[in-house]
Amino acid sequence: MWENLSNYKIVLGSQSPRRVELLRGLDLTFEQRVLPDLDETYPDGLPLEEIPRYIAARKAEAYFPSLEPNTLLITADTLVFLKGQVLGKPKDGEEAKAMLHRLAGERHYVTTGVAICVAGKVHSFMDTATVDFLPLTGEEISYYVERYSPLDKAGAYGIQEWVGYAGISRIEGSFYTVMGLPVHLINKYLKTL
After folding, report:
1. 79 has which bridge partners?
2. Residue 15 three-state SS
3. Catalytic residues
4. Which residues fall within 8 angstroms of residue 80, CB to CB, at 6 or more apart?
5. Could you tell me the pTM of the whole model?
6. From which residue to which does the signal peptide run (predicted)?
7. Which long-range contacts (CB under 8 A, 24 or more apart) does 143-150 make?
8. For the domain bounded by 3-190, which CATH number is listed?
9. How far is CA 135 from CA 53, 96, 130, in A?
């Protein structure tokens, strides 16, 4: 498998342990590289659904100076959208709790944008899943925030953690998109190289 990629050094540009786990699931050999303080801002007026794709491409550009010519780079960004508002990573536990109170009992959308760079060219795409949360009590929200690590997650939750088991009643789309990497689309693209 993956003979078509044998001439490439694959690099995952991400600090996310979940993205490492998901990319490993494709049986790819890759190296994880982390650049500190990547710019995750976006221009005003950018359509909400385009923001994760835009940020993923910006992250890729930050890696360009350190890439060897035969490198295949993968970067990604995930955001949660609720009623036309962006929910990124919470800055502290109180903001995490506030986000989860807003999400409780609501339907929201999770979009992950991906950028794949090969030979200096960037191919980007995105995938969106719809997620329905059951109502959550303040006690349940506090339990999750205090026992897990929601500060590095868009919308202050990980679908693969306790709150996902207890609170998500329905998902339309890819579970892995919500987790942070639409591996089905990455697999599809990499097979074309």
Report:
1. 111
2. coil
3. 77
4. 86, 87, 88, 99, 103, 108, 109, 110, 154, 155
5. 0.95
6. none
7. 144/100, 145/93, 145/96, 145/97, 145/100, 146/93, 150/90, 150/96, 150/100
8. 3.90.950.10
9. 30, 16, 16
Match 């990124």 to its residue by tokens: 88
Cα-based torsion angle of the residue sequence 74, 82, 44, 178 in order, rounded to the nearest 10 degrees: 0
- Check residue 40 and report its DSSP letter: -
Question: Which residue in this structure is represented by tokens 């962006």?
Answer: 86
Token digits of residue 171: 């998902």
SS (H, E, C) 67-94: CCCCEEEEEEEEEEEECCEEECCCCCHH
The pLDDT tens digits for 15-65 are 999 999 999 999 999 999 999 889 899 999 999 999 999 999 999 999 999
Domain ranges of the chain: 3-190
DSSP 3-state of 122: strand
CA distances from 99 to 18, 24, 31 (A): 21, 30, 33
What single-letter amino acid sits at 5? Answer: L
